[in-house]
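Homework-ish question, so no full write-ups if that breaks the rules, but can someone show me the predicted structure for this set?
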Amino acid sequence: MKRLFGLAAVAVLAFSAPAWADGNAEEGASVFKKCMSCHKISADMKPMTGPNLFGVVGRKVAGVEGYAYSPKMKELAGTNPVWTEDLLDKYLENPKTIVPAGKMAFVGLPKPEDRKNVIAYLKAQSK
Ligand code: HEC
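A: Not a homework solution, just the prediction itself:
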């Protein structure tokens, strides 16, 4: 009986967490360590290898003035003008699927909860 209950709980967890559900910003902070070699998130908007991610949730795709985005990232902006949580989720899962030949040399975050948490962190750090 106990075992059955455990299985049911796993099923509920698996189905109750759509990509847009709120993540945990504290856990996202540790996920963001994987991004910190290339990205800052600060109001001064200073770039590193990658553009500053301050306010990126809801920001224009390829929207940081003066940052040299790849042609592919600019192409994405033509079809998907805004970084919605859904678009970020897709990009962060594997950057090359939606921006092939983009400049972001990052393998991606295969775990949905890592993506959800880092998106929550990006939002929390942009206030
Ligand atoms: C090895 C360096 C590197 C790492 C690691 C990296 N990025 Fe990037 N990121 C880039 C570069 C370079 C670009 C610009 C891509 C382009 O123009 O094609 C970029 C672009 C982006 C963009 C688009 C921003 C905009 O202004 O349109 C987002 C969002 C982003 N990265 C999020 C992340 C997150 C979150 C992580 C960690 C999970 C991460 N990146 C890890 C280098 C990196």
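Now go work out the reasoning yourself. Hint: The mean pLDDT is 90.
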